[in-house]
Amino acid sequence: MALTKKQRELCAKILDEVYTNGAISRIDIANKTNITPATVSSLTSQMVEEGLLYEAGETFDKKNKAGRKKILLSICHDHSYFIGSEISERYYTFSLTDNLGKIIAQTAYPLVNNEIHLTSEYFISKLQEFLLASPVSIKAIGIALPGHFNYIKADQIVTNNPLWQNFSLATIKGAFDLPVFFSNNVNCMALSEKLYSPDKEDNFLFFNLARGIYCSYVYCGEIFCKQNFLVGEIGHTSVSLQGDLCECGKRGCLQTYASETWLLKKAALLFESSTTTFLRQLATSPKDITLQTLLTAYRLGDSGVILLIDTAINYIALSLLNMTMILDSSKVFIRGKLFSEPMIKKQLLSLLNYESSLSSMTSANQFIVKNFDIYTGSIGATALALNRTLLNKL
Known about the structure:
This is ROK family transcriptional regulator. By secondary structure, this protein is α/β, with parallel strands linked by helices.
């Protein structure tokens, strides 16, 4: 039976409730969504027939004195499939997942030549290769951007990085017959936590440390304030008024202490100014220093590198603790290659997990350092595609 536009909207609302809560009964869906029980029953029955939902078991209704059992509904695996891609200046990553985030295929293309590789044409060619190799029919494509997407001026990535000035999103969108959706890469990662994680949370932060620093905020199950691109730019919050001049025009931004770009910039200065730094043994010139070089020097006990990283970790902890005092969040997810070093991860968590005298006022935040994986962004992009199609959300 063909659904009306209103019925499709209600189906998306019901589906979102199941994604948000996990296994849930029809009556609980009706109570949470304010959709009539009869409508919920009718639409969920149709979604069960279509293989989108399944009856996962029974639970007792404690509020019902008769002890009536409630039948729980859950999302079916393998109902539909999505391709996600993350665009970055180091690599293009591609992931193919089902509607519950189960990974079917993944691949990555390292980028070496900026003039050739950092173009929409090259990206399209690699996305087409991945799409043609898919063993299943694809419902939609999501693309995680190293910046923001303006729905009104939809051709370019909104960023201060000049590398992406000639990268045409409209050309990418026009190259495929499938629906193609764009969003900020960290917002995509946060969406994948909301939709794919077995531990469901309505309010949480997703902090990402890479070339820049960004923090996505999920509030009441939605990305908070998506149209204001300054919201989430934690890298441009000032942590020291006498600090270095940031590219944004302010002094002492978190970015200037903790972003990979600035850590490597300061490591290059250390290479040139110190005769005792291990960086001179690990790299032939300042431009050859990578984050991995920095982590190796840190493990070897390089005092200059240790000072750089300790300062970065202190300011990251300060910023995250301040955010949890302002924003309602039960969990804070932390991602970055820097934290793949166990000693750095341990140091950060020791600063974050302190015993507060205010803890009696509310439950403590849970800080979770994610295992670093280059595919996190592309998996997040599949969640974006799912969110825009099955859940019908902007």
